[in-house]
Amino acid sequence: MKKIALFPGSFDPFTKGHEDIVLRGLKLFDEIIIAIGYNSAKSDRYFKIDFMKERIESTFKHLPQISVQTYSKLTAEFARENQAKFLLRGLRNTTDFEYENTIAQVNKHLHSELESIFLITSPPYASISSSIIREVHRYGGDVSAMLPYSL
Ligand code: ADP
Question: Considering the entire predicted model, what is its pTM?
Fold first, then answer.
């Protein structure tokens, strides 16, 4: 049976840190679905969801094992619908850990067969965050070095 992982996130925007997690995840999984969610706590996006979907697809166009979808429902439910038995997530620091730990416990409660798998960020990407990129971009700064595609 194919090992399918869902990599869920807001990806507002998708960064080189995210790209690194996906590429390393390919060593563990046969397929990875990058799932751009509408997070209720972050309802106002900076980058439009369709634009980001297209940019991520262009980043991985040479890798057929990677697909991109958008969703607006429970992540555990979306994983079940896509036969994904794994949730892939990235960890940069203890703040990420606290947040991810809570989400993973809830997802396990909602879907007992779903395993959350965490990859520690690679050092060059540890300081990259979507929120910092939004701030820099908002005030006209150059964010191209932090993104795997051009805006
Ligand atoms: P969410 O809104 O669900 O936190 P994000 O788009 O911010 O979604 O992040 C998706 C996942 O990628 C999370 O697990 C987050 O910790 C991880 N992540 C974000 N930035 C990095 C990075 N620079 N290196 C590794 N993982 C990262």
Answer: 0.95
